[in-house]
Design a protein that fits this description.
two-stranded parallel ribbon; about 675 residues; single chain; mainly alpha
């Protein structure tokens, strides 16, 4: 639907823009948006906004790009700015409504759609989304009334009948639901969603054979929807067609390899047909996604015991019992595994837990919600149903097939920078420290030249062999570059012999040592440079950076030694006091060059690492005050706010960071948005 909106909006005339350069940038930005280069498009919209901040269009389209990146808070803010500049644009209310829906702000979204319908009362998309809001609010009566209005405007609108069928199902009116689904199929028998919707209704009525036939039609019309395979597998499972169900899970996982339900259910079915080793692989995958999934862990334990890995089974059972100490089935199976490895004492303790529970039950001393005694019933499911919702955490349901809490499906993209970049799996960590160096990685999306007047003056004096850069994206040296800098060390050494009082020459050699990873020699030269000229702030800055990297290396070495139980002649300890040296040098930089924004940023990183989060935020605030487009400062401040529990502020900063080209921000926004939901 949003794709259609974009296509319409891209037809808007561009004659409103005055200057040809702005016209061209805006056109490129809109092309990038249409072809799903969302991050790149945002960069171009930023340029238009910088040149002509009074236009509503770049804010609106930037908000649309953010919708695709799941930055719903940022999209809403951009639509606010667009509406403030032109309150008569229907699309702005429409996109803001979408952003609000994804933040569960259904009442506010409804207000947006009602306002937009004042200007465009026959807009099908507006009616559609407003009705979805009513459904989400469980206001089925209003949804039913609005669906009547929508279908009066557009009596051939298939989606309207599908929604009305869904509303009827919510109201337990299966007859009305089936009539609406039948009508949708009558209107458009080539719509796979119509067949799938009726199939789901048939599943709910336990008409599994008919449901399978409808899923067959839906899959025939659209082979790339993994949900249809997952649901058809469920219909086949209920007809005891386990091989057919497993085949469907295989097909679903080809389309969506990380599908949780596909792996979990396939693991259960593989276990039922005796394919134990491959079932273990499925549960390994599930546990990789959800390490605390106790039902998957217990199933893996059963399979490990089945394949003779009793120690592995005991480990899995024990983790489950630590989480669910009243789960008597777990004690039963662990006792059996302990007997297999000769742990009689452990097995007796487990059997004692079962016996005690039996006695408690007989004496009516067991609490109402605890698990019953270890009879045959105790090892079965909590009820007779063969399925459970994914959100069900009752460990006794470990044998049940999982069904989704909802049938939503997201489209996945594989490119790091193109399309839905928030789906790239990135680790949550700070943007790195800034450094002075000659080499910088080229970034496809964000390739900013960082500037400071003093550094620029040094470059114009041709003191250094190459242009000195300010960056936090250092490029690794090639073998030729390494040889070049080793040769420069010799040259700079000869220069220092001739002029031992030159701070700049010491600094230049320190950079060479740093680039060839000789941190100790670099620190010595930087200290000498400071002794020769205590106002030369780049030396303090680089000394802080080199010392920080040295400490990080030592800490990593210490952690590795501890983890692998290495015996060391000399104990390495890195304390917070060591990092105070780094902080002190950054303090000197700020005293000497209070406008050198990168010192505040680096000090903020150090304070965050020392868990002094509030002080770190003060430094990030100052960095942003000095440079309002400092994306890395927004990013790190956003993470720091999240560490403090201020998720709303954190997401706002991450949104700004993403807007400024730090694509990983969108992945983190998505995670915390999903978490809050």
């Amino acid at each position: 639907m949003i794709k259609k909106i974009i296509f319409f909006l891209l037809l808007l005339p561009s004659c409103l823009y005055g200057q040809i350069n702005t016209d061209r940038v805006m056109t490129i930005a809109q092309n990038a948006l249409y072809f799903e280069d969302y991050v790149l498009s945002i960069q171009y919209f930023n340029q238009v906004i910088s040149a002509k901040p009074y236009l509503y269009e770049p804010y609106f389209f930037r908000g649309l790009a953010k919708i695709y990146l799941d930055d719903f808070q940022g999209a809403e803010a951009d639509c606010d700015l667009a509406i403030a500049r032109n309150p008569f644009v229907v699309g702005a209310y429409q996109i803001r409504g979408l952003a609000r829906i994804r933040q569960n702000k259904y009442d506010e979204a409804i207000q947006d759609y009602q306002k937009a319908l004042e200007y465009d009362p026959e807009n099908i998309a507006l009616w559609h989304n407003m009705i979805l809001c009513h459904i989400q609010k469980e206001d089925y009566e209003t949804a039913h009334v609005d669906l009547g209005k929508l279908l009066t405007i557009s009596p051939k609108y298939t989606r309207g009948y599908l929604m009305r069928g869904e509303v009827a199902l919510k109201q337990k009116d299966t007859i009305q639901a089936m009539q609406n689904f039948d009508k949708a199929i009558e209107i458009d028998k080539y719509d796979p969603d119509a067949w799938a919707s009726r199939a789901i209704a048939l599943l709910q009525q336990k008409q599994y054979s008919d449901a399978e036939k409808d899923f067959d039609r839906a899959i025939h019309l659209s082979t790339k929807n993994s949900s249809n395979y997952i649901n058809r597998a469920l219909a086949r499972f209920h007809q005891n067609n386990l091989r057919g169900a497993m085949s469907d899970y295989d097909l679903a996982l080809e389309i969506e390899p990380n599908n949780f339900i596909g792996h979990y259910n396939r693991g259960l079915l593989r276990a039922q047909v005796g394919d134990d080793n491959r079932a273990i692989e499925d549960f390994d995958f599930v546990l990789k996604i959800e390490p605390d999934n106790m039902m998957a862990l217990f199933n893996r334990g059963l399979l490990k015991a089945q394949t003779g890995d009793y120690h592995g089974a005991i480990s899995d059972y024990s983790q489950v019992l630590n989480e669910y100490p009243n789960f008597l089935g777990g004690y039963h199976y662990r006792a059996e595994a302990r007997k297999k490895v000769g742990d009689r004492r452990g097995a007796e303790l487990d059997e004692y837990q079962i016996l005690k529970a039996q006695l408690d039950r007989q004496n009516n001393q067991m609490a109402q919600n605890t698990t019953s005694a270890a009879s045959s019933d105790d090892l079965e499911e909590a009820d007779g149903d063969k399925t459970r919702k994914k959100s069900d955490k009752n460990v006794r349901n470990y044998r049940k097939i999982v069904i989704a809490d909802n049938n939503g499906l997201e489209q996945k993209y594989t490119s790091d920078y193109r399309g839905r970049v928030q789906d790239k799996n990135v680790s949550i960590k700070q943007e790195p420290m800034y450094v002075l160096t000659y080499y910088e990685k080229f970034l496809e999306v964000k390739n900013i030249v960082h500037y400071h007047k003093f550094i620029d003056e040094l470059n114009h004096k041709n003191i250094f062999p190459q242009r000195l850069r300010i960056t936090n994206q250092e490029a690794p040296l090639t073998s030729q570059q390494i040889e070049f800098h080793f040769a420069l060390i010799d040259k700079h050494t000869a220069d220092i012999v001739e002029d031992s009082k030159s701070a700049v020459k010491r600094f230049a050699r320190a950079l060479d040592f740093y680039l060839v990873q000789d941190f100790t020699s670099a620190l010595e030269d930087l200290t000498q440079a400071i002794l020769q000229d205590d106002t030369f702030f780049p030396a303090y800055f680089m000394r802080s950076l080199v010392k920080y990297k040295q400490l990080e290396y030592l800490r990593a070495e210490e952690n590795a030694a501890t983890a692998m139980a290495f015996a060391r002649d000399e104990k390495i300890t890195v304390s917070a006091l060591d990092y105070e040296i780094v902080r002190t040098d950054l303090n000197h930089v700020i005293e000497l060059a209070p406008d050198f924004v990168y010192a505040y940023y680096n000090r903020g990183n150090i304070l965050t690492m020392l868990k002094d989060y509030r002080a770190a935020i003060v430094d990030y605030d100052k960095a942003i005050e000095l440079n309002n487009d400092f994306g890395e400062a927004y990013f790190n401040r956003g993470l720091t706010h999240i560490f403090l529990g201020n998720n709303k502020k954190g997401i706002s900063d991450l949104s700004k960071a993403g807007e400024l080209g730090i694509f990983s921000a969108y992945n983190i926004i998505k995670r915390f948005t999903d978490l809050s939901e």
